[in-house]
Amino acid sequence: MALTEEQVQKLNIQFKGIPPEEIISWAVKHAQIPVVTTNFRPYEVAILHAVSGVRKDIPVVWCDTGYNTPKTYKHAEELTDRLSLNIKLYVPKQTTAHRDAIMGIPQIDDPRHAKFTEQVKLEPFKRAMADFKPDVWFTNLRKGQTALRDSLDILSLSKDGVLKVSPFYHWNDTQLDAYLKKYNLPNEHNYFDPTKVLENRECGLHS
C-alpha cells in the first residue's frame, strides 16, 4: 500500500478514537502482503487477538531472541493454540548456548552490545522482512513507551516504506486491561528483552 506522509497524517486524524478492529479491517482490505510481528511481551495478546480476528491466516512473525523466560514461552504456546496463530518463527543463526560461552549478554556500555543486538534481534527481523516483503506491518506500538514511539502515530511509514499500523497506539494500560478482561485473554509480565537493559529504551526494530 503506497501512501505519502501527507496521506498518512490525514488518516491518523481520521483514525483517532476509531476502534482497533475497524483500523485493522481498513488496513487488511488495502494490503497485499500484511504481517503482524510479536515478541509476546506484555499486552501483545491484544494486537494478536484483534488482527487474527479480522484475518485468521495472517503471518505472525515471531523473532525469538532465545532468551525468553519459561513463562513467556508457555504464554506463546497458549496464545498460538487459543488464537490459531499462523506463527512464522525466526531465530538467531547462532545458538544461545554458543553465544553465552563466548559473549554472554553484554551491558549497554559494552562495545559488543551492538553486535549482540544485531545477532539476536535485528538480523532475524531483517531476514523475516526480506522473506515476506510486506506492505503492511501490524505492531503494538503505543504512545508513551519511548521517545521515538511518541513521535509516531497509529499509522507511520518505516524507512523502507512499509506502512506500520498500530491500532492500539493511543490506548493506555487501563484500557488494554479492560480489553483483555472483556475477551478473557491472558497477559504476560515476565518478559525479558536482553537487548534493552532499560525498560524505556527503544528495541531497535522501529528506529
From TrEMBL:
Q: Which SUPFAM superfamilies match?
A: Adenine nucleotide alpha hydrolases-like (SSF52402)
PANTHER family cross-referenced by the UniProt entry: PHOSPHOADENOSINE PHOSPHOSULFATE REDUCTASE (PTHR46509:SF1)
Give me the Gene Ontology terms describing cellular component: cytoplasm
* Gene Ontology terms describing biological process: sulfate assimilation, phosphoadenylyl sulfate reduction by phosphoadenylyl-sulfate reductase (thioredoxin)
Q: Kindly give the Pfam families that the UniProt entry links to this protein.
A: PAPS_reduct
InterPro entries in the cross-refs:
PAPS_reduct_dom, Rossmann-like_a/b/a_fold
| UniProt GO molecular function | phosphoadenylyl-sulfate reductase (thioredoxin) activity
Pathway involvement of the protein, from the record? Sulfur metabolism; hydrogen sulfide biosynthesis; sulfite from sulfate
Organism's domain of life? Answer: Bacteria
Residue limits of the Phosphoadenosine phosphosulphate reductase domain? 35-187
Spell out the family assignment given in the record's similarity comment. Answer: Belongs to the PAPS reductase family. CysH subfamily.
Q: Where are the transmembrane segments?
A: none
Species of provenance? Maribacter ulvicola
Lineage summary: Bacteria, Pseudomonadati, Bacteroidota, Flavobacteriia, Flavobacteriales
What protein name applies here?
Answer: Phosphoadenylylsulfate reductase (Thioredoxin)
